[in-house]
Amino acid sequence: MDPVAICSRSSCGQDGAIQLSEELHADPDVLLEHACRLGLERIVGKDRDQLYRSGRTGDWVKVKCVESEAFFIVGYEPSTALTGGFASLVLGAYRSDELVYVGNVGTGFKETETASLRKTLDKLRWKQKRPPVETTDA
Fold it and tell me: 60 with 86, same domain?
């Protein structure tokens, strides 16, 4: 179903919900700069020559208004749904001189990527029983 049609029938436009704009023909960098200045979370763009298709097709992109930072992969949570994959990666970062747990990330990976990355991570397995950072159960 067309996302615009769904949005027009749902809670789009209400406070705290998805905000749908008209189609904008502008430089994406300028749009992102203005969106971030307005306090918006992100902009979403679509290849206008492609029809809507579900799944990860590459026709849609989302660009967030957040600063980025480099993290270390310090482990993973095994997947219960995908044999040979992972549910999420455990991340760490240096704060002062200490490597600390900063969170997990588990979205945006294709099935083939998770299997390949899991094989690589298993080759680099930590030799001790505890991970190199203290984690918290969320």
Answer: no
